[in-house]
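User: Can you predict the 3D structure of Probable GTP-binding protein EngB? Sequence below.
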Amino acid sequence: MSSLKAEFVVSSGKPDTFPSDRLPEIAFLGRSNVGKSSLINALTGHKKLAFTSNTPGRTQTINFYRVDEKFYLVDLPGYGYARVPAGFAEQWKVLIEHYLEFRETLKFSCLILDTRRGWMEKDLDLKRWLDHHGRPYLVVATKTDKLNQSEQERGLRAIRQEGVEPLPFSALSGRGVREIWQAITTTLQAR
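Assistant: Sure. Here are the predicted structure tokens for Probable GTP-binding protein EngB:
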């Protein structure tokens, strides 16, 4: 896939600093270090658009990336095992909840799971919240390239036990990029 015109717009720690141009938004949600930023980079064809790190918790604000002047890909802070003070973690939680509940321009979310780890309680809480609020989402299973075929199948089967069909993704091979774009495009066309 060729690179899209994608640009970093703002890193927001407060709702009043979110973009105000009313473009539709696609949110990327998941635990710390699950591959949200890598997925955004793969989707846009820009290896360094979203900052990636092996250290959990590097994304500490909501980052907005405008794509082709038509919509935003939104990288949210991860939840889970990031080594940050409790106060920061609570601020992230409040910020994320506010964004998910009140952001009118949020049209679709990618709930990202590490195929090796599957569902954890906070992932299930988020899934239940999205279901309860009628927020459309796609479950993306990342890091498939770190598993052999039988391990991948076992991980995907475990994710399916929650009644969803995960879309496998690999940042290394690009597996799943086309299918994720199809889901995003379908959502944006329906708006």
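The chain is about 35% helix and 20% strand. The mean pLDDT is 88.
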